[in-house]
Design goal:
The complex is a heterodimer of chains A (200) and B (301). Chain A is 48% helix and 9% strand. With 200 residues, chain A is mostly helical. A three-stranded antiparallel sheet of chain A has the order 1-2-3, with no helix packed on it. Chain A is globular and about 50 Å long. The longest helix of chain B has 14 residues, at 61-74. The radius of gyration of chain B is 18 Å and the shape is globular. Classes of the chains: A mainly alpha (200), B alpha/beta (301).
């Protein structure tokens, strides 16, 4: 079951990467200039990172499969209960997870470099402004912990997402202060994070 | 009972009311009472009548009183759908909070069959895409054809503008044959709000697509004010971010891009599209029309 979930995820990731390449090739008129093409994913760290993402998604998929399917038109109570149940199962499945399990040291270095490059260009100040708009700043986080309900999500501009490896729909990158968080958006759970991912 | 009494008064004044008649053109009026909004919309048969709210789910008195205005207006201007431009629920989204911050204030509209089509803001959890009252069908971004007239709406997830979404939008806009294409999402490309303002990185990515594909109107929120922006490359942008939240005095009048604005009361937008014209009224919590006008659809160049 886990192998099948991982296979499905790899197919979806390949489709997303193809869409990314297509989007970047067509985006010159949208103000995403030639420098962005050199920042496309596939650089060092991608394979290692995506392999860890695969492992996480296998766990996520198995946890989701073990829950009853989402009914059509679910009630709010059903949505909330299921989300928390999913998070509990995932946490149990990776109880010993800590910082660096997905964002390994090599991946961290690679991501910091990419973000530095993206924010050093002519649009850098505006991108930073966009990221920091209503950015909640540094707050206490726990791996496998719930992303706080009262904390808004930071903006992830296109120009930043385009330089990071594509994720499956269940996962998102978000900033909290200068920390880059890998968020399981379906389980509302912190998967991993990189401190000081944004350059000062 | 109060509305019936007010109707009697209105009939006496206009001498044009026939009991049991369908609502006629709504080009009146002085308010029938302080709690009943006046409107200046044609109210034609067959037009698309809709509303827009943003940054609303506080559970506070401002949201509730504005919702009362919306329900009161609907008795004379029967809009059938409501678009949300995000920040639908603030803080906890536990079921009882969804009741307090959404199902209760808009109960009259929900019971009347008004369909809400939500987009998500930065305060919204992803799980809202499953919430039946938001009609997102499990999707973070989607488009749908309006139930009347030749209109397609595009709900975007502007806090996470990933390449896949952008690719989807390009294709949807290109494939759309509707005369009116109306995107709506949370973060404004143009805004005179002092707290956030215009988002330039998003503008760089989205505006060229809107221009290329004949978009006439864009609806956004995020800044807790109301603003209609002067046309930018022929496109009229709205900020409807004060339908619950409100940042008093936050409109920067020196940006030079404001056509009309309000930062003193909660506001929602009532709109009607008939043919090539979109009529709109921005209605405040106290029932005042704080902005109104007609937008002509952009024609292909």
């Amino acid at each position: 079951m886990m192998a099948a979930a991982a296979r499905i995820f790899r197919l979806r990731r390949a489709a997303t990467a193809a869409a990314l390449a297509l989007a970047l090739s067509g985006c010159a008129h949208a103000g995403v200039g030639p420098e962005s093409r050199h920042e496309a994913p596939g650089t060092e760290g991608n394979a290692a990172f995506l392999a860890r993402v695969d492992e996480y998604m296998a766990l996520h998929g198995a946890a989701k499969q073990s829950l009853p399917p989402v009914p059509p038109d679910p009630a709010a109570e059903q949505i909330a209960t299921r989300q928390r149940a999913l998070a509990r199962l995932i946490e149990q499945g990776r109880a010993k997870a800590g910082p660096g399990d997905v964002f390994t040291p090599g991946v961290r270095a690679s991501f910091r470099t990419r973000l530095l490059r993206a924010l050093s260009g002519p649009e850098g100040a505006e991108l930073r402004g966009s990221i920091m708009d209503e950015n909640p700043g540094r707050i206490q986080l726990r791996i496998n912990g719930r992303y706080p309900d009262s904390v808004p999500l930071s903006t992830m501009p296109y120009q930043i997402l385009a330089v990071l490896p594509p994720l499956p729909e269940e996962l998102e990158y978000r900033f909290l202060g200068t920390r880059l968080v890998l968020l399981d958006a379906h389980a509302h759970l912190v998967v991993d994070y990189i401190d000081d991912a944004l350059p000062k | 009972m109060r509305r019936f009494a007010a109707w009697i008064v209105a009939c006496a004044i206009t001498a044009a009311c026939i009991p049991g008649a369908a609502p006629g053109p709504a080009r009146i009026y002085a308010p029938l009472s302080p709690a009943e909004p006046s409107i200046d919309l044609p109210n034609r048969d067959g037009s698309l009548k809709f509303g827009v709210i943003g940054d609303f789910g506080t559970g506070g008195r401002g949201q509730y009183e504005l919702a009362e205005q919306m329900a009161a207006l609907r008795s004379r201007f029967p809009f059938e759908l409501m678009l949300t431009v995000g920040d639908n629920i603030y803080g906890s989204e536990r079921p009882r909070e969804l009741v307090r911050k959404f199902e209760t204030p808009y109960k009259e509209l929900l019971d009347a069959g008004v369909k809400f089509y939500a987009s998500l803001g930065n305060h919204d959890s992803r799980e809202q895409r499953l919430y039946k009252h938001f009609n997102m069908d499990g999707r973070l971004y989607y488009s749908f054809k309006a139930p009347a007239q030749d209109i397609r709406f595009f709900a975007l997830e502007s806090s996470y503008l990933e390449p896949a979404q952008l690719e989807w939008l390009k294709k949807e806009l290109a494939d759309s044959k509707e005369a009116w294409k109306i995107p709506y999402f949370h973060h404004p490309l143009y805004s005179s709000g002092g707290r956030h303002g215009s988002d330039i990185p998003r503008r760089r990515v989205l505006e060229p697509l809107f221009i290329e594909h004949g978009v006439s109107v864009v609806l956004t929120g995020h800044d807790h004010v109301y603003e209609r922006v002067q046309p930018q490359h022929g496109i009229v942008y709205f900020v409807v971010g004060s339908s619950g939240q409100l940042r008093r005095g936050n409109l920067n009048r020196r940006t030079g891009i404001t056509a009309a604005g309000n930062d003193t009361e909660q506001v929602f937008l009532a709109a009607e599209i008939a043919g090539d014209e979109m009529y709109f009224n921005a209605v405040s919590r106290s029932g005042r029309i704080v902005d109104s006008g007609i937008i002509e659809r952009r024609r292909p160049e």
